[in-house]
Write a structure and sequence with these properties.
This protein has 14 helices and twelve strands. It has 400 residues and is α/β, with parallel strands linked by helices. A seven-stranded mixed sheet has the order 2-8-7-6-5-3-4, sandwiched between helices. The protein has a three-stranded antiparallel sheet with strand order 9-12-11. α2 packs antiparallel against α3. It is globular and about 65 Å long. It starts with 31 loop residues before the first strand and ends in a 7-residue tail after the last helix. The N terminus is likely disordered.
Length: 400
């Protein structure tokens, strides 16, 4: 019997003729991998593309890295930019979104009177980044408390009310990590721009998860991981920067491209953004070159339909758990995508996470926020209704 949905009486996975693509991934047989949001899983054919690039590099490493890499990366960025609704000249590859956040934090000149305004929903590593950089410059990092249950309209108003003449930057997640919420950021980006306040959006979970039109969004800085929901190889992410801010960026690694001379070769690229960030010493660029393969993989499988199916599964599960434990959902259905929070009784998150894995071979993130405990359920194209049923039936999650 599948998880009930009390508001509709339907099962956790509505009738669907789609083929679940479990065999297209390398996931361990018998493992219910319901934590795609943490590290993701890469399809076989995308990994094969990465290995093809690695083999090609090894046939002549000097030619590949010194003479060909800039053009290859340019082509990859152009395909990614088209997918993101952006311009290739305004984005550069980075290993992960955390690197981009640190880069922008390091580049931002803050005075003791300045503040970086954020929310209580942000990823802990990024909180640590801003606390460290603000402390170094005598500035302030101020998270605005966002209550649960989450109200999108109230969220926007709270953030607008919190802006002061001291606000230098708005730092916001597009999709939060701990609470899985899709934040309504477009209005905040618009108002911030009108008031001369910079915006940095942490879209670590956004590419491949929701539709993106970065030029239309207008954030000053946007970073996203391709190795999460876009299913590209690990170590592929991007940093998107409006052109008027290119000059302000400080590279964390100074190499040939950062020299104001003709000593850099073709590998460093032509624009300042390319020169400063693309070539930072020898490294494996195959994850970045494989991003177009991930885009093609999803395009060939009607990914909007995959997203819709996954969204339906996590929402049905969310309401099933809410009914079981008589605990309210933390937000309306439309505030979630392919991740949702399953409300469970307050308990030790680490213990519950280990029990799910050790007793049921279920990989699921267990999070805590505002005194509540949740299982963060992630559904990707390979996720089956049976796997979510295993989670629902797990002894650790039965009502006592």
């Amino acid at each position: 019997m599948l998880v009930p949905a009390p508001r509709s009486g339907k099962s956790v996975c509505p009738p669907c003729t789609m083929v679940v693509m479990r065999d297209e991934f390398l996931l361990e047989p018998g493992l219910a991998f319901l934590n795609h949001g943490s590290f993701g899983a890469c399809p076989r054919e995308v990994l094969q593309e990465q290995r093809r690039w690695q083999d090609e590099m090894e046939r002549n490493p000097l030619e590949f890295l010194s003479r060909r890499s800039a053009a290859l990366l340019r082509d990859s960025r152009e395909q990614l930019a088209a997918y993101l609704g952006a311009q290739a000249d305004h984005l550069v590859y980075v290993p992960n979104a955390t690197t981009a956040v640190n880069t922008i934090a390091q580049s931002l000149a803050l005075k003791p009177s300045d503040e970086v305004l954020s929310t209580s929903l942000e990823y802990g590593a990024c909180d640590a980044t801003w606390l460290a950089h603000c402390a170094r410059q005598g500035a302030h990092y101020r998270p605005v408390e966002i209550p649960l249950p989450f109200d999108p309209d109230d969220f926007v108003q709270r953030m607008l009310n919190a802006i002061t003449p001291r606000t230098k930057l708005l730092f916001l997640s597009h999709i939060t990590s701990i609470t899985a919420l899709i934040l309504p950021i477009a209005e905040l980006c618009r108002v911030a721009r009108e008031r001369g306040i910079l915006t940095l959006i942490d879209g670590a979970h956004a590419p491949g998860h929701i539709e993106l039109k970065l030029d239309a969004l207008g954030a000053d800085f946007y970073t996203g991981n391709c190795h999460k929901w876009l299913c590209a190889p690990k170590g592929s992410a991007f940093m998107h920067v409006r052109p008027e801010h290119h000059e302000m960026l400080v590279t964390p690694v100074i190499s040939w491209g950062a020299m104001n001379s003709a000593r850099h070769d073709a590998s460093t690229g032509s624009s300042r953004l390319e020169r400063y960030f693309q070539w930072q010493g020898t490294r494996d660029i195959s994850p970045w070159l494989s991003v177009p393969a991930a885009i093609r993989f999803q395009a060939a499988r009607d990914w909007p339909a995959v997203r819709a199916r996954c969204h339906a599964m996590v929402i049905e599960a969310m309401h099933g758990f809410s009914e079981r434990f008589d605990l309210p959902p933390v937000a309306p259905d439309h505030c979630f995508g392919q991740m949702a929070l399953l409300p469970v009784p307050a308990q030790d998150a680490a213990v519950l996470r280990e029990r799910l894995f050790n007793e049921n071979r279920i990989e699921a993130q267990v999070t805590q926020h505002a005194g509540r405990t949740f299982v963060r359920l992630c559904a990707q194209g390979y996720t089956t209704a049976d796997e979510i049923q295993r989670l629902f039936d797990a002894p650790a999650l039965q009502k006592s």
